[in-house]
TrEMBL record:
Activity regulation information from UniProt: Activated by a monovalent cation that binds near, but not in, the active site. The most likely occupant of the site in vivo is potassium. Ion binding induces a conformational change that may alter substrate affinity.
UniProt protein name: Ribokinase
Cofactor(s) recorded in Swiss-Prot or TrEMBL: Mg(2+)
Amino-acid positions noted as binding ATP in the UniProt annotation, renumbered to this chain: 179, 215-220, 246-247, 271
Pathway note: Carbohydrate metabolism; D-ribose degradation; D-ribose 5-phosphate from beta-D-ribopyranose: step 2/2
Annotated residues for binding of substrate: 9-11, 37-41, 135, 247
Enzyme Commission (EC) number: 2.7.1.15
Gene: rbsK
Entry's cofactor comment: Requires a divalent cation, most likely magnesium in vivo, as an electrophilic catalyst to aid phosphoryl group transfer. It is the chelate of the metal and the nucleotide that is the actual substrate.
Gene Ontology cellular component terms for the protein in this record: cytosol
Active site, renumbered: 247
Catalytic activity: D-ribose + ATP = D-ribose 5-phosphate + ADP + H(+)
Length: 299
């Protein structure tokens, strides 16, 4: 099984002619309410990819929370809600996109930030992969990754978004997954544009059995170990919308590791899953099922 600790958000996505300047009011041309949060997106991706998926997360006692709970259930994710003290709203992200595709995002994390280390109970028996991202408090993630809690399980941390303080978690992870922007932030590089630049990830490795997986957009992905690296090129596609590609990659990779795949063997399939996610708008709706990805790989 895959056990995940992560964020749950409702995304309010508005299309505007131009982004508002300070003090300005702008009317949206179109507004959509979409399920989101890196945690929820990755949980759906792992579950659709075939993993028995458990998600620890927090929602408010409100309609948005109920809606997100139903989205997780429809997608086969076993939701383990954290009980919160007092009234906290479900997390929200307000996303404005202008004509040129530029965006402005405001995240109101709400219930996600109320998760405390005391809320993390014992692991689900039989879990092989423990997965977290950085949209929930770091002390809760530290408790989730406690060595005596996870036993021989694999700790996978998606260091997204880049939070400098999260470096304290790196020694207690087995697989760290970063995109180019995040790797540049953690290694204080101006830019990461390909595999050669990604080798800088070695400075984040503190143990022989640790590795960093770097996603390179249209460049695919690579795994960097202390003494070796391996690059898997991306599937050739024309993206419709890359929202959710990174989350799809992480969820699919977690599902494959849960099956016992080696990372080197899993990367081409995770790339193919993420490429398929770029063919559909949105996060949750874009996550492919395993059979669809296998069919593309067999061609
Ligand atoms: P993020 O979405 O976090 O910025 P990336 O852009 O690195 O992450 O994308 C994650 C993965 O999605 C990549 O490793 C790749 O497999 C796939 N992907 C993203 N963009 C494309 C693209 N233009 N063509 C093919 N695959 C893509």
């Amino acid at each position: 099984a895959v056990e995940l600790l992560g964020s749950i958000n409702v995304d309010i996505v508005t299309a505007l002619k131009h982004l508002p300047r300070p003090g300005e009011t702008v009317l949206a041309r179109k507004t959509e309410k979409l399920p989101g949060g890196k945690g929820a997106n990755q949980a759906v991706a792992a579950s659709r990819f075939g993993a028995d998926t458990y998600m620890i997360g927090a929602i408010g006692d409100d309609g948005d929370g109920e809606w997100m709970e139903s989205i997780l259930a429809e997608n086969g994710v076993h939701f383990l809600p954290v009980s919160l003290n007092g009234q906290v709203p479900t997390g929200m992200a307000y996303i404005a996109v202008d004509e040129k595709g530029e965006n402005q995002i405001i995240v109101a994390p709400g219930a996600n930030t109320a998760i405390a280390s005391e809320n993390i109970g014992p692991a689900i028996p039989g879990t092989r992969v423990f997965l977290a991202q950085l949209e929930v408090p770091l002390d809760a993630i530290a408790a989730f990754f406690q060595p005596d809690r996870v036993g021989h399980g694999l700790r996978v941390l998606n260091g997204a978004p880049a939070v400098p303080e999260a470096r304290v978690l790196f020694p207690d992870t087995d697989v760290l997954i970063l995109n180019q922007t995040e790797l540049a932030a953690y290694c204080e590089l101006s830019e990461v544009s390909g595999v050669e630049d990604a080798l800088a990830a070695r400075q984040l490795i503190t143990r022989e059995d640790q590795c960093v997986v770097v996603t390179l957009g249209a460049g695919g992905s690579c795994v960097i170990r202390r003494n070796s690296h391996y690059h898997a090129p991306a599937m050739k596609v024309v993206p419709v919308d890359t929202i959710g590609a990174g989350d799809c990659f992480v969820g699919a990779l977690a599902a494959l590791l849960d099956e016992g795949s080696r990372i080197e063997d899993a990367l081409p399939l995770a790339n193919a899953a993420a490429a398929q996610a770029t063919q559909v708008s949105g996060g949750v709706p874009a996550m492919p099922v395993r059979a669809a990805v296998d069919a593309v790989m067999a061609k």
